[in-house]
Amino acid sequence: MLGIVLIGPGSALYIGADFGAGPRDTLMLVGAQRTGRRVGLVRGVLEICALAIGIVLGGTFGAGTVLFALGVGPIVEASFALLQRSPLAAPVASHTPVVIGE
């Protein structure tokens, strides 16, 4: 359970610091932006889909896997909200994404 709780702030910090998001983090952010749904809901759906695909493919799972799939979305969303209110979230003058190769 502690691991699930620590993933939220960790994810919020490295995504908020623009260190790059992993594949599921990117899907979470893009899905939330395009659908207008909350980040926690989108992340939860992604994790439940990953769990369901794993089960269909014959993978093993336990209570921890199910707890992670159901809990990580709300914890990540709450961590983003806390990070926005913290002194670590300094306003940035302008954030221009850099595109390499064009």
Short description:
This protein has 102 residues and is an all-alpha fold. The chain has helices at 2-16, 23-35, 39-56, 63-85.
DSSP, total strands: 0
- The run of helices and strands is HHHH
The assembly state of the depicted protein chains is: single chain
Beta percentage is under 5%
Rg over CA atoms, rounded to whole Å, is 15 Å
- On the 0-100 scale, what is the average pLDDT? 87
Shape: globular
- Individual helix count: 4
Low-confidence stretches: none
C-alpha termini separation: 44 Å
Helix content: 55-70%
Task: Give a description of the structure.
The structure is a single chain. The chain has 102 residues and is mainly α. The chain contains four helices and no strands. Helices cover 68% and strands 0% of the residues. Helix 3 packs antiparallel against helix 4.
Key phrases:
68% helix, 4 helices, mainly alpha, 102 residues, globular
Write the layout of secondary structure elements.
Layout lengths: L1 H15 L6 H13 L3 H18 L6 H23 L17
Helix pairs in contact: 1-4, 2-3, 3-4
